[in-house]
Amino acid sequence: MSLFEVPGWSVPSAPVPQQNKKRKRPSTKDTVDDIDEAQRIKAAQKNIEKLMASLGAGSGDLEEGGSEKPKKKKREVKEKAARVSEPERGRKIGHTEKGVDPQSSTSKRKKKGRELKAEPSVERSQERAGPSQKKQKQRQKQNRKPEHTDPVDSPSDPESPHETTVQLASPTTKKTEKVASKKGVGKEKDVEKPQGLTALQANMKKSLDGARFRWINEMLYKSDSAKAHELMSSDPAVFADYHTGFRHQVESWPTNPVSHYISTLSSYPARTVIADLGCGDAALARALIPRGLTVLSFDLRPDGAYVIEADTCARVPLPGSEKPLSAATSNSGDESEAEGEGQVVDVVICALSLMGTNWPGCIREAWRILKTGGELKIAEVTSRFADVTEFTSFISSFGFKLVSKDERNTHFTLFEFKKTTRKFKSEKEWKKTMSRGDILKACEYKRR
Q1: How is 40-55 classified by DSSP, letter by letter?
Q2: Structural element, H or E, at residue 297
Q3: DSSP structure class, residue 190
Q4: pTM given for the model
Q5: Residue 421, H or E segment
Q6: How far apart are CA 132 and CA 137, in angstroms?
Q7: What is the dihedral of CA 161, 163, 165, 167, to 10 degrees?
Q8: Which comes out higher in pLDDT, residue 177 or 106?
């Protein structure tokens, strides 16, 4: 009977079953029923038995193979021993009779084998060792070297321990020599560095000295000799600074013309009189005077020993005339040739000294002081020549003849002239000749 009774409604006594639309998964009971569990267990057992059987057979084969290898070796040794002939056995017996024990020989072989095995391990340990340990070992070997290496007692056998120690020590000694040489160079540089200055200050001072040298050098080329002489006389430090910078510049040159003239003039006979016009620090005189040559050095400032103060483009304080003294005062129309009188100089050197706008005056003075047939040697910077042929013809107009010209050097050109007679020139003609100083270009530096 229903719980509620509503008029017009009827409720069934049992609930209406509802159908579930979701799919049902197969239960485990169905899968177990499909496959017999007993059969699965038996199949698994058979597989395990087969696996165990195969593993056991493999291990058995390995054990049999491992045991057979030494047997084969033993058999080979026995066969070799059997092959030994009777006379060889007799020899071995004779050795044993003389006192050689076969057991001792085998023990020696074993020791050698151990030593050979130990050598790679030692090498590995040495490789693993740091560079400091290697250096210590090399030093120890060097210290032992004088004790073991005696040139008289050391054997000539290449495997001797004495020679091996020499071979090991030789590369280290070379290294020490290189280091010593490097240290020596460093010491020289330290000596050259001014005292009380750091490396930076020394470099700054060097660059300032170079700049000052370039300024003085350019001023000397672009002004006449009288102005340069006045500057040097009023401030002697300018002359010193210029030649200090010049010496530093010479160090970078491939060759020095002064060195060339020193080697050339060294072969000249003794008492040869040489006039060095624009001598600088008189390097020529310092080198040639001890060899018996007479060198007269002239420049804008004296040094109190070798250098005589003179403006070489105006007047060199040496005897000599441009015309014979016996001749009367000649007029401008006189065309007679002359070679002058009273000269005492055999060779005139102008090594990089044709400076100033009035440098042709130096060539005129060289002709005046030279003996007949005397030599004029000129060395000039190659970059100053616009036309070398024009320069040589200009020098020849002063009364010289070109003997040789050397243009092999990339920096300098060397000329050698010989004094000849020349026609008389009036002052007007000389003035025109002296105004041609632009044949040589002035040395100019790039602005930095």
Answers
A1: HHHHHHHHHHHHHHHH
A2: strand 294-299
A3: H
A4: 0.56
A5: none
A6: 9
A7: -140
A8: 106
Task: Mention every residue, 6+ apart, whose C-beta is less than 8 A from residue 35.
Answer: none
Q: Indicate the residue type of 115.
A: E
Cα(258)–Cα(246) distance, rounded to whole angstroms? 13
CA dihedral 437, 316, 250, 265 (to 10 degrees): 110
User: Which carries the bigger pLDDT value, residue 55 or residue 394?
Assistant: 394
CA–CA separation, 193 vs 413, rounded Å?
Answer: 34
Strands (E), 322-433: 337-338, 345-351, 370-381, 400-406, 412-419, 422-423
Give the Cα separation of 355 and 443 in Å (integer).
9
Q: Per the structure block, which two tokens stand in for 232? A: 């040097």
Mind listing the pLDDT tens digit for each residue in 363-410?
999 999 999 999 999 999 999 999 999 999 999 999 999 999 999 988
What is the 3 state secondary structure string of 96-162? HHHCCCHHHHHHHHHHHHHHHHHHHHHHHHHHHCCHHHHHHHHHHHHHHHHHHCCCCCCCCCCCCHH
Tell me the chain's radius of gyration from C-alpha atoms: 54
In contact, 239 and 264? CB cutoff 8 Å: no
Torsion, Cα of 245, 246, 247, 253 (10° steps)? 120
SS3 9: coil
